[in-house]
Design goal:
Blueprint: H1 22-44, H2 49-68, H3 76-86, H4 108-135
Helix pairs in contact: 1-2
């Protein structure tokens, strides 16, 4: 197995802070400050330095998570809002072309009642249409 490396320094991509967004840098600084503050306070209260450091990391980890979270181009608050909006009740299209099949609901509670009877109404209309077609003289 061979691993190819580039000898040309121009082909090497920059790393470190150049790859982070402003939001990620901001949340990294906030996470660092919170970690240091919690570590210092825990040390002052008599905790071992190593344990105080771990406590600081555990407290500050959610802050870093919020800063670095990215799913489908959305940050964590945007993603939670989008996920919350997905669980809304199904909305029906209000047709302006055929007022007989239009469903008009302004109250969500009425919409649930409309959804229950929607299939029955559509099936009965289709059956009525087929009956009328079969009764037509040839």
């Amino acid at each position: 197995m061979t691993i190819r490396t580039s000898r040309n320094l121009d082909e090497i991509k920059p790393g470190g802070l150049a790859l982070l967004t402003k939001r990620q840098i901001l949340y990294s600084v906030i996470t660092l400050v919170v970690t240091l503050l919690v570590t210092v306070v825990a040390t002052i209260l008599g905790a071992n330095l190593t344990i105080a450091g771990y406590i600081g990391l555990i407290v500050a980890a959610p802050i870093g998570y919020v800063g670095f979270f990215k799913r489908n181009g959305m940050t964590l608050p945007e993603y939670r809002q989008a996920k919350k909006n997905v669980n809304q009740p199904m909305l029906f299209y209000d047709s302006t072309e055929n007022p007989k099949t239009a469903i008009v609901c302004s109250n969500p509670a009425d919409m649930v009642q409309d959804q229950k009877g929607f299939v029955d109404r559509m099936v009965s209309r289709m059956m009525e249409k087929k009956r009328k077609e079969s009764e037509k003289p040839c």
